[in-house]
Amino acid sequence: MAGHSKWANIKHRKAAQDKKRAKVWTRIIKEITIAARDSGPDLDSNPALRLCVQNAKGANLAKDTIERAIKKGSGAEAANLQTYTYEGYAPHGIAIFVEATTDNLNRTVAAVRSIFTKSGGTLGTNGSLSFIFDTKGVFTVDNTSLEGKDEENLELELIDGGAEDVEKDEEITVIYTSFDDYGSMQAKLAELQIEAISTEIQQIPKSTTILSIPEAQEVLKIIDKFEDDDDVQCVYHNLELTEELIATLEEG
Fold first, then answer.
1. What DSSP character marks residue 206?
2. What is the pTM of this model?
3. Domains and CATH numbers, the chain
């Protein structure tokens, strides 16, 4: 089930998230607030909120910050938060999928369009990248929670829960499912008493594109601009993060 080029992208994305922990926390706080607003503050009756809180704990978000985000979900400010997606291309044909949560759509659209156009890219219409990305459930598990479990039997159980792919390194295991099997895998991990560090719906590229180092660095600067925007929650792309590129980034 393992052994394709996504893993380099995962490792780099994890490292990037570690460097931008405050940004990750901001994203999670918004997710908690929206989940509490949409289905109430009770964790037992609100599975979406329960997952958000689980993700928050995995990101080491403080307990009082989590509680404030839940409380905020019942306030007027939360009522104005909406989630939007944007699709387009960076230079050199790299596809970019942006998820944003905002209380001011005009501000967010203007900012996203500006980043695309000023960087030599183009903003497309929603759905224009559907042939490039698959919507997947992505479950990240700390390997310590898998200790003592038979590896072969575990893989069979995960397949039964809808796992399409499993990637593992020294510290974490990442499980991919189809969008439709997202709930099934949640139930399977609970049945196996495995607590995920994070559970997310992500846009995973069906294939990736290799660029020269200078071209790739140009695209990554654009991705950084999106990620630095306060309204942007997640940025997905189909740039192949080769070992050479990752080494160059680590040196820089």
1. S
2. 0.82
3. 6-79 (1.10.10.200), 82-131+206-251 (3.30.70.980), 134-205 (3.30.70.980)
